[in-house]
């Protein structure tokens, strides 16, 4: 496994994408940074992280066959690898907040950003960005966030956590095609606020109550509304308020 360590970079995802365009890279090449100046989150949101305290890593996953691992199947495998990483460090009360937040004890500790490049031969290449709050303790301006060190009272070696994440990611993707049904069941079982009344906001600004039932195979959030109707939302159509 190749792990490239940088002092500071605008975005590890962008750096790895550019590097992959410029030269041949082995599969599962990873880039991590001491500091990201323009870290990216889902839907263009900024990923804020205190320099030198947390994990910011991007991993190149090459030549995935679309007929074996669909795009949202891939998301499921990545999310479960993140949950497995937390379990490895003894954190069991975890959830996945759709579409790509990783929760521990009902607060956000990590986020995933997956960027795909599709090819005409039926394969695609993915850049998996993962940010995980490790040793940061102050979240005064982020009340819904937390870190592993706040939960466990331990300090983490960031390089070691990065290497463990890449190994778990590789393992989950290797095993996924033969464990699709089991993986999807586990993913939906871990959904944050599943089967509980929750507040949502549509892109129009309208707020409403609903109950999350599952995520569809196409990656849409399936919600039962107050009138018992069931609707599906794409990732840009709704957000959960909590």
Would you write up a description of this structure?
26% of the residues lie in helices and 34% in strands. The chain has 242 residues and is an alpha+beta fold. The protein folds into two domains: 3-189, Bira Bifunctional Protein, Domain 2 (BirA Bifunctional Protein, domain 2, 2-Layer Sandwich), CATH 3.30.930.10; 197-241, SH3 type barrels (Roll), CATH 2.30.30.100. The strands form two sheets. A seven-stranded mixed beta sheet has the order 1-2-3-7-6-5-4. Strands 11-10-9-8-12 form a five-stranded antiparallel beta sheet, with no helix packed on it. The longest helix is centred in the first third of the chain and has 18 residues, at 71-88.
Task: Find the structural class using helix and strand composition.
Answer: alpha+beta
Instruction: Please name the CATH architecture of the largest domain.
Output: 2-Layer Sandwich
In total, the number of strands is 12
Coarse morphology: globular
Which stretches are low in confidence, meaning pLDDT under 50 for 5 or more residues running? none
Number of helices: 5
State the name of the first-level CATH class of the largest domain. Alpha Beta
Strand order in space, largest sheet: 1-2-3-7-6-5-4
Count of all domains: 2
**What percent strand?**
25-35%
The third-level CATH topology of the largest domain is: BirA Bifunctional Protein, domain 2
> Residue share in helices?
25-40%
The CATH H-level superfamily of the largest domain is Bira Bifunctional Protein, Domain 2
Order of helices and strands: EHEEHEEEEHHHEEEEE
- Radius of gyration from the CA trace? 18 Å
Average pLDDT for all residues: 92
Largest sheet: 7 strands, mixed
């Amino acid at each position: 496994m190749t792990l490239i360590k940088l002092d500071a970079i605008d975005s590890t995802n962008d750096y790895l994408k550019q590097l992959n365009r410029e030269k041949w890279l082995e599969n599962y090449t990873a880039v991590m940074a001491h500091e990201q100046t323009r870290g990216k989150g889902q839907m263009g949101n900024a990923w804020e992280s205190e320099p030198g305290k947390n994990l910011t890593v991007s991993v190149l996953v090459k030549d995935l066959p679309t007929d074996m691992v669909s795009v949202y199947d891939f998301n499921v495998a990545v999310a479960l690898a993140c949950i497995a990483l937390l379990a490895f460090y003894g954190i069991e009360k975890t959830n996945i907040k759709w579409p790509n937040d990783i929760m521990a004890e009902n607060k956000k500790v990590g986020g995933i950003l997956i960027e795909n490049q599709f090819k005409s031969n039926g394969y695609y290449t993915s850049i998996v960005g993962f940010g995980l709050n490790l040793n940061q303790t102050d979240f005064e301006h982020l009340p819904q966030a937390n870190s592993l060190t706040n939960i466990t009272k331990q300090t983490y070696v960031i390089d070691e956590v990065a290497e463990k994440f890449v190994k778990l990611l590789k393992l989950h993707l290797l095993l996924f095609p033969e464990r699709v049904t089991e993986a999807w069941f586990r993913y939906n079982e871990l959904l944050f606020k599943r089967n509980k009344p929750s507040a949502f906001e549509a892109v129009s600004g309208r707020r409403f109550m609903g109950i999350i039932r599952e995520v569809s195979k196409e990656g849409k959030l399936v919600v039962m509304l107050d009138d018992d109707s069931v609707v599906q939302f794409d990732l840009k159509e709704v957000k959960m308020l909590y």
